[in-house]
Amino acid sequence: MQSSEETTTTTAADPGAYPAPAATADAAPAHDERAPAEAEAKAKRTLSVSDAAVQAIRAQLAKRGTPEGAIRVGIRGGGCSGFSYVIEFDDKPPRSGDLVLEFAEPGKATVRVLCDKKSIIYLGGSVLDWEKTLMYQGFKFKNPQEATRCGCGHSFTVA
Question: Which of these, 6, 16, 76, 95, has the minimum number of CB atoms within 10 Å of its CB?
Fold first, then answer.
């Protein structure tokens, strides 16, 4: 029995039999075995920010009166599980080695999210999201490297 990966490779190699799978801008040819590993390595060196989080950051910076400022995300040792997430305002220029993410929309202030190079080791592949429920309102990390999280949700351990 063939695995689904082998089936996908077979259908992509024989374009007359089945329609080719939809390609993305970052997609690589099926025969390039390095591309998935490179894409995975790149994803581990960056983080994503949801649209809801970008809007929340823009609102917080405007409320603070520093729309040209930034939000710095990272981790610190401590908390009940080993590491704690850190989210703070940063009005200074990015540091050397910082990951700088910019989100621009026409007619609105550009949102910048900064992360230091040590924190990205533990936050790589994560998504910073904004969550609003009856019990909680705030930023939340969806971190694939997180092995366990404490009950308060502010500290974690990595796998």
Answer: 16
